[in-house]
Amino acid sequence: QSDFLQGENLATSHDRRQGNEEGQDGSDLGPSSDLRKGRLISPQFELNRDYLTFFISGGNHGSDTCVRLIVDGQVIKQASGNQQTRMDPVRWDVADKNGKSARIEVIDDHEGGWGHITCDHFVLTDVPPKGMPTRQQLTRRAKAEGIDKEILKEWVRLWPQVIEGHPVGRALSKDDVLISNCESSEGWTLDGPAFDDLEPGDWTLIGMPRFQGGHSLHSAAISRALRGTALSRNFLAERRFLHVGVQGEDCQVRVSIEGYWMNQHNALLFENFIQPVQSLDRWQHMIFDLERYQGRNIHVEIHDPGDGWVSVDRVWLSDDRSAGGPGPDWSVLNNPGLTTSELLSDPSRLERLLTLGLLDPSRWGEAWNAAVYKAVIAYRDVASKIPDPTMVLACSDAPVGFDVPIQIRGESGKVGELVSRGAIKALGQNDRFADELQGSGRWELAQWVTSPENPLFWRVQANRIWKWVMGKGLVSTPDDMGMMGTAPQNQRLLDHLALRLSRNASRKELIRDLVLSSTYAMDSLHPDPDVDTRDSRNDYWHRAEQKRLTAESIRDGILVTSGGWVPSSGGPPVPTHLNDFLTGRGRPGQSGPLDGDGSRSLYLEVRRNFLNPFFTVFDFPIPATTVGKRTESNVPAQALTLMNSPFVHEQAERWGGALKELSETVGIDGAIDHAWKQALGRWPSKPERQFALELIGAGGQEDWADLAHTIYQTKEFRFVR
Questions:
Q1: Nearest to residue 584, comparing CAs of 547, 611, 554?
Q2: Which helix H or strand E contains 58, and what residues bound it?
Q3: Can 11-127 and 177-383 be said to share one CATH topology?
Q4: Residue 408, SS3?
Q5: For 417, which of 241, 405, 520, 673 is 20 to 30 Å away at the CA?
Q6: What is the number of other CB atoms lying within 10 angstroms of the CB of residue 708?
């Protein structure tokens, strides 16, 4: 085969058929080989040998692509692939589960690159690994030495793990770059209460107490119930591989390139830069390939989002993929006069023996007496009462900032000279700015931007508030108040509002005063036509500006008049209603209700590639950047939408039913008055009343719905005079 898979009866989740996968809408989702997911479960079988051996290859994505051994409903062994098609041998020691019923699970729950797992040749055997004695040899030796044969057997069985090297203990070469050896949290930014430093000889309570054999940054130093994130300092990707040594469960390590964080939702360009931590009893070696990101600023994030825990041993850069190094020094065993206390004086040796269960902690030291046991029980009781945290999206400043080079013409590949952090020189450089920098300097920049000494910020704020309330800004280019923008129509008014905001930054108070002003209450038509001649551009606001409602306000107005509006606030966003024309990559798996559950438009979900069609036709901006001034088009599609939109038809029928019911109480004329007052804020004129009476006719349900639909289509409904 072209991919060099060997064997005739492989169990594999690698779909090797030709062609691409199609989505539900018929769109092309790309090659299908790694897209499909699944689970293969073996029949139950008895563990009647000491070892289970097999071969494995495929993706290395932790529990997403793995082979598991299940005994009594618990996962006791797990192995992942090697990111290669070469089959590697795996040997599991299952002697302690002899006689138990077991089953094997092969899991593929990953759809990206190397999103498959392949395995073959599962065998139960008593043949020990090369160099290990047989069961008969162990029995004879135990009898000769006068020791318990089961204890000797357990020591021999675990001896390879006792003397194995440290998975991430390789001594660094002169070309390697140490990012952190975790002897302290200095250089790390800690978010949340979970992470703290641990030193050799410390204990943690993770199920049973665990001994700490070396320095580490640990998320269960106080309690595994606490949650948090540890972020390393920023550093340059100046070597091919980033190595991270971790231990724990149900946590993750993430590498951020230039602060990019969307790979939490879709890996796309940064696949395999988030790796799970799933290694309870030994250190896990993580490798991140930085070949494509040389010279970029990166940092490492260690996440403990729940009741798991993670311990970080070391982070470094290297051009060498290997990380293994020597483990504890066991040469002391060659000394015939060695005492137990001398053997256990080395924390790394003590940790290894405790982890493997070869040392009875109840017989070692005073830390396991009854008083400590009671304290442990009390501790666990307190930890169980720690409430779940409330999560919010927030930002924090790194303790150490750095300057970045200018990107010539905005191209990331064309780097110019290094630019010192500071204020915007074109707006008046603050000489003290550079001397006051702490961390990244963003806090100082924010203080400088919002300073009363910087009039631009307050003028921009005042202009945008005036524009949203009055319909037109005092500066007609709210997104550009610099040299390329237009001059203010009324400089004195703009400065008055800006000065007021700089002294009292409450936007609510300013908006309240504006909507209560006589200027806001004016009509857009002035009774004296000569005034329009003297102030043709309305620079001095002798009249109001006629303004069209935004797309959201038009929809909300339809909901309010129809009675479909649900006056509630907060809660999760309402999913977008999908029609047959909203197709493409990333299409949501479910469609929301047509009326958005009656929620205000503020609470509707916004997806950049699947915008509400009703919104887009009324100039809803593409959510890619801030927009201070929306486009106000007048195109046939807007009238057609109000005529044909299923949402408008649905609400017109609802409103028509309410008007018909009202007419039975107050009469047809009273219902017509109510409709005009509710939708347009005025009474109907005589011609309008006559038109409505003719349209209603016999006053059936459909007739009232037609009247409601007609009112929705009037320009007056979506414009404010």
A1: 611
A2: strand 51-58
A3: yes
A4: helix
A5: 241
A6: 26
CATH number of the structural domain 11-127:
2.60.120
Residue that the structure tokens 């450089």 belong to: 429
- Two tokens, residue 256: 């951020």
Matching residue, tokens 């009898």:
143
Nearest to 324 by CA among 167, 442, 144: 167
Local structure of 530: helix, strand or coil: helix
Domain residues of the chain, as ranges?
Answer: 11-127, 177-383, 404-444, 455-534, 546-721
**CA pair distance 718, 553, nearest whole angstrom:** 8
Is CATH 3.30.70.20 the classification given to domain 177-383?
Answer: no
Among all chains, which residue has been given the structure tokens 């924010």?
446
| Interatomic CA distance for residues 142 and 151, integer angstroms | 9
Here the contacts of 709-715 (C-beta below 8 Å, separation 24 or greater) are 709/648, 709/649, 709/652, 709/656, 711/561, 711/675, 711/676, 711/679, 711/680, 712/558, 712/642, 712/648, 712/651, 712/652, 712/679, 713/639, 713/642, 713/643, 714/680
Which residues have C-beta within 8 Å of that of residue 543, sequence separation ≥ 6?
522, 523, 524, 525, 526, 531, 532
Q: Give the mean pLDDT of 561-581.
A: 91
- The kind and range of the H/E element at 74 are strand 74-80
Residues with Cβ within 8 Å of residue 123, at least 6 apart in sequence = 52, 53, 54
Q: Collapsing DSSP states into helix, strand and coil, what is residue 149?
A: helix
pTM: 0.63
Using CA atoms, how far apart are residues 571 and 574, in angstroms rounded to an integer? 9
CA distance 479 to 485: 8
Question: 84: which 2 tokens?
Answer: 């290669």
Is the pLDDT confidence value at 613 over 50?
A: yes
40 contacts: CB under 8 Å, gap ≥ 6: 11, 13, 105, 106
CA distances to 455, 500, 670 from 459, rounded to whole Å, are 6, 10, 48
Kindly report the CA angle at 74 between 388 and 162, in degrees rounded to 5? Answer: 100
Does residue 557 have a pLDDT over 90? yes
At 304, which helix (H) or strand (E)?
strand 297-304
Q: What are the angstrom distances between the C-alpha of 192 and each of 225, 361, 702?
A: 12, 32, 60
| pLDDT tier for residue 504 given thresholds of 50, 70 and 90 | very high
Strand partners, 257: 298
